[in-house]
Amino acid sequence: MIPVHSAANRRNGRTENRKNRRFSYAAFRHHIGGLRSAGVRFALGYAVLFWVSAVMFLSVIWWGTAGLLERQVEASVSADARALSERWTDGGLSALALTIEDRLEDNVDDDALYLLVDPHGQRVAGNLSAWPGDVAMSGVWYQLTIRRAGSRGIAEVQAFDLPSGYRLLVGRDVRGRTNLRRLLTDTLLWAWVVITILTLVGALLVRNMFRRMISSIARTTSAIAHGDMGRRMNVSGRGDELDEVAEAINEMLDRIARLMDGVKQVSNAIAHDLRTPITRARTQLEYAALHAPDEAALRMAIENGVNDLDNITTVFEALLRIAQIEAGSRRSAFASFDLVTVLQDIVELYEPVAEEQEIRVVPRMPERISFYGDRSMIQQAISNLLDNAIKFSPHGGTITVSAAIGPDLSHDGKSPGQATTIAVTDEGMGMSEADLDRASERFFRADSARNTPGSGLGLSLVQAIVQLHGGILQFVRRSPGLSVEMQLPISGKSKEAPETDMKQDSQSSHHQDRSVMIQPHI
Amino acid sequence: MRILLVEDDPTVRSFVAKGLTETGHLVEQADNGKDGLFLAVSEKFDVIILDRMLPGGIDGLRILETLRAQSNATPVLILSALADVDDRVAGLKSGSDDYLTKPFAFSELLARVEALGRRGRNEAAPQTKLEVGGLEMDLLSRSVRRDGQKIDLQPREFRLLEFLMRHAGQVVTRTMLLEGVWDYHFDPQTNVIDVHVSRLRQKVDKPFSQPLIQTVRNSGYMLRAD
Q: pTM for the full model?
């Protein structure tokens, strides 16, 4: 049958296509690493989908057209046979033979085949010389190669049994139709070749498009991976998915840069500021080992050394704690608590120390402020502030610890939340404008404070804690003295740390006139 | 007391073991998790000192969890270089009674170990009355008397004295006071605790001939009647 021919053709086509694809694999692999490349997979997916649907489409056309031709032949043969058998019934053998001869004469296309044989197989009428041996059963379609008038042809025939042993063969020479079918097949095959080429071109285009989209991301990220942290993604401004990805990556990079800055600061701090106490301890111990006049002196030196080491540990822990808080990884301990109780407890803890220096600590706060945050950290922040205030207060001075609820200024009016402002105000020597700028830097100590004990990390820690709670830390100069204010949003539950970072940045300009705002370091 | 010390660092181990032995304790040592677990489950100790990170596949927390799963209530002190608040919480959650971070002062460790050993012994009966020397504390009426004379204390002073009396005869460090009386888990830079103790002394000791609250150099305080 004809489909055999076409199937062979298709198989040829497939090998050809596979060759093509193998070739393009090699090219792809050469470019961006074969199937591991998402661009190639994307393009291949596109190509396969397009190609398969085109082939299905062509197949449907092929089967539709070729099948229609076949069905037409079968329908006309059946109609013919029915008409002839009616003739037999009406007029007997002679009428039938006559009709067959008439039909053959009328047949312009010369494609009709008839053969009427008697019970002995002798031809009675028709244009075939003898009953073909292959045709044994009636009512079944046979395909024959026939030799007729000197030329070979292909015919579709069916046999019919007539009464009293006569048999009738009706068929069509389908040579012309076969030619038509071949023409159709060729056309479709050519269409298929063109489609395959289009598919490959399309796949290449898709891959290139994909690569163009990805390459800017890849270029930037690999530049960053090689150490160029200043690079950022280009944002086209179209607001499409690529822009979203680019913005997300840029945000991530900003955060990473801030964290890296923090790490750098800590390591610098360790390198420079821990060296001093370590050197001091080392020198002391070494000197004692070499020159201590008696055991008591040696003991004394060792004890001093241990104290120095303890101080180093304290500084070290404070540094780590600040770094950890700034990394924003400590929101796990957040819970609701009453801020006023916490404040009162700390005031009570420090009151005796203050009283020793005749300093009054005056609490000014409402009955209750319910707050969501890390209790232990808030305690530590307030304790650091109060500690500082006591250190820098003159004898007989007053320290005010106040807490109040007000509108949250750090929200920019977007979602008018509430914030609590905790302020610790002393009447000490205060700080100069220049010192205020650096007040919460790690290890920064104003010149006037060199002689008081402390590590210079207290305010850095407060700053980190305030930032963790999404608040802002500000210093307001009084005459005399200094007021340190922590403004903490009360509805901190739903807020995320990075968001608050940005808010703080945008806020800083608003308050520049009356106080110094501390920019987050991280 | 019989103390089990599980610690892999030989210097720290021998230092702690020596210090504890010198103060009259019996110390068993293990330098890895496997031996530590074996000793902890097979013998009876008053206190177990457990390093968190141990070689041998079984770390301190695993030992602790295994002990607690067998309803072994021996007081456990975790000794760890993991100083993070979360680590501390993890340690206490898995059933430890105290948590001390490295580096530590031996006096701090000793004070805490002795407090733990004491607690293990007299936890049975809830007390309503504490008495040290002539000092009496009624926990129900929240009143304090010394030699029959009433002493008026602020609520916080009462709790400070109560803590000292509960640990009478033992060294109590500043950190222990800060944790036990104020529930603060950070180190205030100034000598706040000293000032509170000296205030308490004014009321408890000054009017009387014999001082009860004593300062232990380099460690902390001790309430003792001798």
A: 0.59
